Amino acid sequence: MTTVISNRLHPDERKDQLLAVAAKHFADHGYTNASMSHIATEAHVGRALVYHYYPSKAALFEAVILHQSDELLAATKPTHELTAEQNLVRALNAYIDYQERTDNVILTLRRSDASVPKTARRAVSCHHDVHTERIIEYLNLPDTPLMRGALSSWLSFVAEMAYHANEHRDIAKDHIIRICINALENIVGSVTGNTIE
């Protein structure tokens, strides 16, 4: 039997390490093909330690989703010092940059199979809702089912563009951002008859 030896880390540091390793593993293999044993091996710890912090694969996956959601929401949080469009540019830059430097499970979840836990999908939906509410607040848009549906579709479009920006590094990020903003302006104009200023 092989004994796995690992440097001792503070529990919070260990959890962060496991989340980072698990994020890459889930991004590479998807939820169904992911293995707690392989995640433990990649983290250079025993499987029992992984289960100590996360009692199941579903629990670990949900923890990765929540962790990345918190990071993305913090990175894209608007500031009152900027205009609506400046906040949009800043948030889109942060969104794309996050995809480039991390194994972002949230942005690749849409390509996952139906076996992904419903609680994880609900966590992504809540993440989506926060972004929708931010856009409605900062652009002073009517909070209607039609507007929320339109903005939800736009957020899915942004996720797709961020994914492609990461897959095709020859595409200029500024071009991606301008396309996303133009799309949002068209959506807002179609729903309200107004434009973003």
What structural class results from the helix and strand content? mainly alpha
Mean pLDDT reading: 85
Give the CATH H-level superfamily of the largest domain. Tetracycline Repressor, domain 2
Beginning-to-end CA distance, first to last residue? 65 Å
Q: What is the subunit arrangement here?
A: single chain
Order of helices and strands: HHHHHHHHH
At CATH's second level, what is the architecture of the largest domain? Orthogonal Bundle
Q: Give the CA-based shape.
A: elongated
Helix percentage: over 70%
Task: Throw out a few tags for this protein.
197 residues, mainly alpha, Arc Repressor Mutant, subunit A, Tetracycline Repressor, domain 2, 9 helices
What is the structure about, briefly put?
This protein is an all-alpha fold. Helix content is 70%, strand content 0%. The protein has helices at residues 11-29, 36-42, 47-53, 57-75, 84-101, 105-108, 118-138, 145-167, 173-192.
